[in-house]
Design brief:
The complex is a heterodimer of chains A (205) and B (534).
Chain A: H1 5-10, H2 15-26, H3 30-51, H4 55-72, H5 82-100, H6 122-131, H7 134-143, H8 146-156, H9 162-169, H10 176-197
Helix pairs in contact in A: 2-3, 3-4, 3-5, 4-5, 5-8, 8-10
Chain B: H1 6-13, H2 19-31, H3 33-54, H4 62-66, H5 78-109, H6 117-124, H7 131-134, H8 138-158, H9 161-176, E1 184-188, E2 191-194, E3 199-200, E4 203-213, E5 216-217, E6 221-230, E7 233-234, E8 238-247, E9 250-251, E10 255-264, E11 267-268, E12 272-275, E13 278-281, E14 286-287, E15 291-300, E16 303-304, E17 308-317, E18 320-321, E19 325-329, E20 331-334, E21 339-340, E22 344-348, E23 353-354, E24 359-360, E25 365-368, H10 378-401, H11 403-413, H12 416-439, H13 444-474, H14 480-499, H15 503-533
Parallel strand pairs in B: 1-4, 2-4, 3-5, 4-6, 5-7, 6-8, 7-9, 8-10, 10-12, 10-13, 11-14, 12-15, 13-15, 14-16, 15-17, 16-18, 17-19, 17-20, 18-21, 19-22, 20-23, 21-24, 22-25
Helix pairs in contact in B: 1-3, 2-3, 5-8, 8-10, 10-13, 10-14, 11-13, 11-15, 12-13, 12-15, 13-14, 13-15, 14-15
Classes of the chains: A mainly alpha (205), B alpha/beta (534).
């Protein structure tokens, strides 16, 4: 829990000092910009690493995101948390990359509205969660369709609100929950597929 | 009592339910074990997800931590840009001083009068002796760099049709305008005939199966046809794209022909240029200027007033040459009635046969060339090393300027079959499309441009294949340095493979096809992404 994406930055720098750093970076101070970068680059890299399929994509995206941030720093509203703005920019950038690749990898395998409504057995679900490791979950995440994975990353890595997620993914606010729940179902399918069937690994698409 | 569904439970956990329902639910779970369990399970799922996502399972690449990136492009990688501009500048300078300028001089000496760049490109360039040095390293690199720079500069605006139109339009004007100032008469029918008593007082552009000139054309004759026969009189140039070209009449200008068979038996007041399978200069023919030809078989009985420059697999020379004769090919046979006033030089594979009775001002200079690579000579390896270096430098430019594109091509390379298919297609389709474009006059600029790009691509193919091969051998790269290292290794493998006897040419072909394929696919992918993003 201590390594939560959003918390990472803001916890380290006291408020006033941080505001000053941002102001200096805004006015073009290279040193302040360097400081900001050093502080947030790891978190943004990890974010990209989770959101994008390949490591090289994540590296490039990180650089590109910070180029954008440097460009748009003037537009940042200082009354709101810096990290949430940063994640918003990052989410838009990554989603843009994924959206452009839609030709080959289907972003969604069906309508957002359709939801597998079979009610899970709470006991079984709990067992599955107990038995799954982080590593397995990450492997399963990699197999999810882009939208599902992106939604989970935005929610559980970046701690974004439903509103922010709706904005980043371009879905209606009311459907964010549906997207998230659907993503969980797909993830469970992959996890159980691996555990129970063993040999029969189920692809996500 | 009914239970809450999973969706509501999730929304509750995420604090998304309105107050009233949230209270309702929290009261419910106090008594309902099943719903409570579901909530717990969902919560532990959230925890698991959060843990899995935020766990620092791999280090942040050092490359990222080194330097904070500057604002977009403005100051990014100024060195790469400077280097490229330097290359481009020296490339342009080299092109001009080494190629364009001497061309013009040489052409005007040969009576070609540098009327337009296009004429030079088409009718002069191929015969220019310096072509061999063109393959020479840095010049080519500089030229290719120039093209890449142009692409990089125009990439933004490229999508917008007006930009394309302006660029191509300007090019077209540049290329075509000077000679085509006057309007021409255009005739298109199955058989175009200018009858014996007819006078066309203009340039004539004729297309059809058969074009026959019995009368007079007071201007240039440009013909696209199957058979072209000129029995009459053309006061300007004859430019012919035809299967069979026969010129028995009089031409006051130049004759330029691209054909399968070309035969000249009338007087030509200026120069003759011919690309053909078989070329014949009959004994009645008299070319006042110089004669240049590219042919598989050539017989020459007629007179050539000035120089003779020819590439012909087999050449039978029985006529008169007023200037120097510079010949290249497999075999040359100089008959008893031949006369060469200037110097004569032959470069080829076999010793030429020269009749004792032939009148040569000076003995024929003969250079016998063997085509095999000389594996024993160190110079051969030195040249291969230089070639490897050149390809690597081009790769460097590509990797620095278009890293994303290079990566796209690597991705496409994984789809071998598709890449090879697309490669074969674009390798063949591009020149065909270019020829078709050229046939429509206006499309000439586009045609020439695409041929130039095609040639550059033929060379650049190895870079993309090299990068792909390197990656296959050493695994995915995680930094620009690693990409370049893999590129170097891949290019080395290709270079060595193409040096192999017999297999080499096949390797080269595969590299060209595959390289073309991945680039085509990457471009297609990009353009579709652009379309999707709009």
């Amino acid at each position: 829990m201590e390594a939560r994406g959003r918390g990472e930055g803001s916890n380290r720098m006291p408020g006033a000092e941080f505001t000053e750093t941002i102001a200096r970076a805004r006015s073009g101070n290279a040193e302040a910009w360097g400081e900001l970068y050093k502080q947030y680059a790891p978190a943004i890299f990890r974010f990209c690493r989770r959101a994008l399929p390949a490591r090289e994509d994540a590296e490039d995206a990180t650089t590109e995101i910070f180029m954008k941030v440097r460009d748009k720093l003037g537009q940042y509203d200082a009354s709101r948390p810096f990290t949430s703005w940063l994640y918003k920019v990052s989410a838009n950038h990554c989603w843009d990359i994924l959206r452009r690749r839609r030709i080959r990898q289907d972003l969604e395998t069906g309508e957002v509205e359709t939801l597998p409504l079979e009610h899970p057995d709470p006991g079984q679900l709990d067992q599955l969660m107990e038995a799954s490791t982080s590593l397995q979950v990450r492997a399963a995440l990699d197999k999810l369709p882009a939208r599902a994975r992106m939604a989970l990353v935005l929610r559980y890595y970046s701690d974004m609100s439903y509103d922010e997620i709706a904005g980043a993914l371009g879905v209606r606010r009311a459907f964010v929950g549906v997207v998230l729940l659907r993503a969980r179902h797909q993830l469970r399918e992959i996890l159980t597929g691996r555990k129970i069937a063993g040999t029969k690994a189920r692809g996500a698409v | 009592m009914s239970h809450y569904d999973e969706m509501t439970c999730l929304l509750y956990l995420d604090g998304q339910l309105d107050r009233e329902r949230a209270v309702e639910l929290s009261t419910h779970i106090e008594t309902c074990a099943e719903c409570r369990m579901l909530l717990t399970a969902l919560e532990s799922e959230s925890r698991l997800l959060r843990g899995a996502l935020t766990e620092e399972d791999e280090p942040v690449p050092a490359r990222l931590l080194e330097n904070a990136p500057e604002a977009k492009r403005r100051e990014a990688a100024p060195l790469a840009w400077l280097a490229t501009l330097g290359f481009a500048g020296s490339g342009a300078f080299t092109l001009w001083t080494w190629f364009v300028d001497p061309w013009q001089q040489q052409l005007s000496q040969a009576g070609f009068g540098g009327d337009s760049f296009l004429a030079m490109l088409f009718f002069g360039g191929v015969f220019w002796k310096g072509w061999e040095t063109m393959v020479n390293l840095t010049e080519l690199l500089a030229a290719v760099t120039l093209v890449i720079l142009a692409v990089a500069l125009f990439r933004r605006g490229w999508r917008r049709t007006p930009t394309v139109a302006v660029v191509l339009g300007t090019l077209a004007c540049l290329l075509v305008l000077p000679p085509a100032a006057s309007a021409a008469e255009f005739r298109k029918q199955a058989d175009v005939l200018v009858a014996a008593d007819e006078v066309v007082k203009n340039d004539l552009i004729a297309t059809g199966a058969n074009v026959k000139i019995e009368g007079t054309v007071e201007g240039d004759l440009i013909a696209f046809c199957k058979n072209l026969t000129v029995n009459g009189h053309v006061t300007g140039d004859v430019i012919a794209f035809a299967q069979i070209v026969r010129i028995n009449g009089t031409v006051d200008g130049n004759v330029r022909s691209i054909s399968s068979f070309a035969s000249l038996s009338g007087p030509v007041a200026k120069n003759v240029t011919s690309f053909s399978q078989t070329f014949e200069l009959a004994s009645k023919s008299e070319v006042a200027g110089s004669l240049m030809f590219f042919a598989a078989m050539t017989t020459q009985d007629g007179r050539v007033g000035r120089d003779l420059i020819g590439f012909s697999a087999e050449h039978q020379l029985d006529g008169y040459v007023g200037g120097n004769a510079l010949l290249r090919g497999d075999r040359l046979s100089i008959g008893p009635s031949a006369q060469i006033v200037g110097k004569a030089k032959f470069t080829g594979e076999k010793q030429p046969s020269v009749s004792d009775k032939a009148k040569l001002a000076s003995p024929l200079e003969v250079v016998i060339e063997t085509r095999r690579p000389r594996y024993a000579s160190p110079a051969y390896y030195w040249r291969q090393t230089l070639r490897w270096g050149t390809a690597f430098m081009l790769g460097l430019v590509v990797a620095l300027l278009m890293p994303g594109f290079l990566r796209d091509t690597l991705g496409e390379g994984e789809r071998y079959g598709l890449s090879l298919g697309a490669g074969v297609l674009s390798l063949i389709v591009t020149p065909v499309a270019a020829v078709i474009a050229c046939l429509t006059i206006i499309g000439i600029a586009v045609g020439v441009l695409s041929v130039l790009v095609w040639v550059a691509m033929l060379y650049a193919a190895q870079v993309f294949v090299g990068a792909f091969l390197g990656q296959k051998m050493l695994g995915p790269a995680d930094s620009t340095g690693a990409v370049l290292g893999r590129l170097a290794v891949g290019l080395l493998v290709i270079r060595v493979a193409t040096m192999l006897p017999y297999v080499g040419i096949f390797v080269w072909l595969v590299v060209a096809v595959f390289g073309f394929g991945v680039v085509t696919l990457a471009i297609v992918k990009r353009s579709r992404e652009e379309a999707a993003a709009i």
